[in-house]
């Protein structure tokens, strides 16, 4: 993830967390909120690191207010491993907003347990 060597527009930084605009924004407001401690995936979190997840969400809440998307809505997303789309193996929280973002998945999955009349 961000190691300080790549140019980035930093929007928040403290001793544990950094938030910045990604190289390829997907919405008008798009930030990556990253713990400075390198943790590859959510599955790799240790109990002593759990406070970092709460802090990431607090930073997201505050940035959403600052960038005036808290009232209209925004999406928070953490991808874990390849099936979810994780391509950088250092946990990071996406804050996406400033437009309607649509469904998170294609909605094409059909649950085999669902009755035909329920569809």
Provide a quick synopsis of the model.
With about 120 residues, this protein is α+β, with helices and mostly antiparallel strands.
SSE map:
Elements: E1 10-13, E2 17-20, E3 29-35, H1 50-66, E4 74-77, E5 93-97
Antiparallel strand pairs: 1-2, 2-3, 3-5, 4-5
Pfam families: HIT (PF01230)
GO molecular function: catalytic activity
Organism: Roseivirga misakiensis
Can you offer a commentary on this structure?
With 119 residues, this protein is α+β, with helices and mostly antiparallel strands. The protein has one domain (10-101): HIT-like (HIT family, subunit A, 2-Layer Sandwich), CATH 3.30.428. Helices cover 14% and strands 20% of the residues. It contains 1 helix and 5 strands. It has one helix spanning 50-66, and strands at 10-13, 17-20, 29-35, 74-77, 93-97. Strands 1-2-3-5-4 form a 5-stranded antiparallel beta sheet, with helices on one face. The radius of gyration is 16 Å and the shape is globular. The chain starts with 9 loop residues before the first strand and ends in a 22-residue tail after the last strand.
Descriptors:
alpha+beta; 5 strands; five-stranded antiparallel β-sheet; 119 residues; HIT family, subunit A; single chain; 1 helix
Model regions low in confidence, pLDDT < 50 over at least 5 residues: none
As a whole number of angstroms, the C-alpha radius of gyration is: 16 Å
Label the CATH architecture: 2-Layer Sandwich
Helix fraction by DSSP (H/I, runs of at least 4): 10-25%
Could you tell me the number of beta strands? 5
Distance between the termini: 41 Å
Instruction: Name the CATH superfamily classification.
Output: HIT-like
Major sheet attributes: 5 strands, antiparallel
* Percent strand: 15-25%
Main-sheet strand order equals 1-2-3-5-4
Query: Would you give the CATH topology?
Result: HIT family, subunit A
H/E order of the elements? EEEHEE
Decide which structural class fits the backbone. alpha+beta
Just give the CATH class.
Answer: Alpha Beta
How would you classify the quaternary structure? single chain
User: What is the count of structural domains?
Assistant: 1
Mean pLDDT: 84
- Name the overall outline: globular
Organism: Roseivirga misakiensis
Domain HIT: 1-106
GO molecular function: catalytic activity
Active site: 92 (tele-amp-histidine intermediate)
């Amino acid at each position: 993830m961000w190691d300080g060597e790549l140019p980035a527009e930093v929007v928040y930084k403290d001793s544990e967390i950094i938030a910045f605009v990604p190289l390829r924004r997907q919405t008008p407001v798009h930030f990556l909120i990253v713990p400075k401690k390198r943790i590859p995936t959510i599955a790799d979190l240790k109990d002593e690191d759990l406070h970092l997840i709460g802090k990431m969400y607090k930073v997201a809440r505050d940035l959403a207010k600052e960038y005036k998307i808290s009232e209209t809505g925004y999406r928070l997303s953490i991808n874990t491993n390849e099936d979810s789309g994780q391509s950088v193996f250092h946990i990071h929280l996406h804050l996406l907003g400033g437009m309607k973002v649509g469904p998170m998945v294609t909605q094409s999955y059909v649950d085999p347990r669902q009755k035909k009349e329920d569809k």
